[in-house]
TrEMBL record:
Domain of life of the native organism: Bacteria
InterPro entries in UniProt: Cro/C1-type_HTH, Cupin_2, Lambda_DNA-bd_dom_sf, RmlC-like_jellyroll, RmlC_Cupin_sf, TransReg_Diox_bact_type
Organism of derivation: Arthrobacter nitrophenolicus
PANTHER family recorded: HTH-TYPE TRANSCRIPTIONAL REGULATOR, METHYLPHOSPHONATE SYNTHASE
The protein's name: XRE family transcriptional regulator
GO terms for MF: DNA binding; DNA-binding transcription factor activity
PROSITE patterns (UniProt xref): HTH_CROC1 (PS50943)
Cellular component terms per the entry's GO annotation: cytosol
Keywords from the named record: DNA-binding
SUPFAM superfamilies tied to this protein: lambda repressor-like DNA-binding domains, RmlC-like cupins
Region named Disordered: 73-98
Length: 230
C-alpha cells in the first residue's frame, strides 16, 4: 500500500522528505528517532510504503509539525508548530467582508487525504491547516484476512469522535468497547489507545483532535496495556 492518495497526486512521502531536509535531519536520524529503519523511511518518502498511525505521530513530533500540516502540498514546507497555520484568534481563518467563503468552505471533492499502513484513511475537513487541532473524517476498512495492529498510539492532546457508519472496536487504556452509529467518545490522548474495525463492513467516523501543548510529543507504546491481577 502506498501513501500517495492526496488530491492532485501530492505525496505524503514528498512532504515528509521536504520537512526532514528543511530540519537538517538525515534518513538514519529520523529512523532512529521514530523507531524504524532508514530504508523504511526512504520507502515512505518515495511513495513505496506508508507509516502506521503511531509512527506518523512520532514523525510529526520529531519534525515539529502538526498532523494537520502533513496534509499540505508535497514540496511545500509547512511552518513549525509554534507558528501555527492560520490567522484567527484561536488559530483559525477569520471571516471578513472581503474574503467571502474563500478559505472557510471545503468542497467534498477537494478534501486532502492520507491512507496509513494500518488501514485508516484520513480526510481533512478544513480548507487549510488549523493550529493545534485536526478535524477529520476517518474511514476504517475491515481487517478480514489481515492482522489487526498491535501497537497503541499515545500523544499530547484530547480526542473527540462520533461514529457515522459501521462498528468500531475501541481500546483506551485498560477499557475496551464497540462503538455503533451515533455513539461518541472523548478521552485524553496521552492514554494509550487504538481503534480497529473487526467487523465485515467499513466504518466511517468524524474525529476532532485538540493538541493541548505548544510542542507536540508522541511516545512509543509498543504493546497493549495489560490488566493487573491473578
Amino acid at each position: 500500500m502506498t501513501n500517495d492518495v492526496e488530491r492532485g497526486g501530492d505525496s505524503l512521502g514528498a512532504r515528509i522528505r521536504a520537512l526532514r531536509k528543511s530540519r537538517g535531519v538525515s534518513l538514519r536520524d529520523l529512523g532512529q528517532r521514530i523507531g524504524v529503519s532508514a530504508s523504511h523511511v526512504s520507502q515512505v518518502e518515495r511513495g513505496m510504503a506508508s507509516f502506521s498511525v503511531p509512527i506518523l505521530y512520532r514523525v510529526a513530533s520529531e519534525l515539529e509539525i502538526s498532523m494537520d500540516g502533513l496534509f499540505e502540498s508535497g514540496d511545500a514546507v509547512p511552518p513549525r508548530r509554534e507558528q501555527g497555520g492560520a490567522t484567527g484568534e484561536n488559530g483559525s481563518r477569520e471571516l471578513t467582508p472581503e474574503s467571502g467563503l474563500d478559505g472557510i468552505v471545503l468542497r467534498a471533492a477537494d478534501r486532502k487525504k492520507i491512507t496509513l499502513a494500518d488501514g485508516p484513511r484520513w480526510e481533512r475537513l478544513t480548507p487549510e491547516p488549523e493550529a493545534r487541532s485536526e478535524f477529520l473524517e476517518v474511514y476504517y476498512e475491515p481487517f478480514s484476512g489481515r492482522t489487526a495492529p498491535l501497537e497503541f498510539t499515545r500523544h499530547d492532546g484530547r480526542e473527540y469522535g462520533v461514529i457515522l457508519e459501521g462498528k468500531l472496536h475501541v481500546q483506551v487504556g485498560f477499557e475496551e468497547t464497540v462503538l455503533s452509529p451515533g455513539d461518541s467518545i472523548c478521552f485524553d490522548s496521552r492514554v494509550p489507545h487504538r481503534f480497529t474495525n473487526q467487523g465485515g463492513e467499513p466504518v466511517r467516523a468524524i474525529w476532532f483532535v485538540r493538541e493541548d501543548h505548544d510542542h507536540f510529543r508522541s511516545e512509543p507504546t509498543p504493546a497493549a496495556p495489560r490488566k493487573s491481577g491473578p
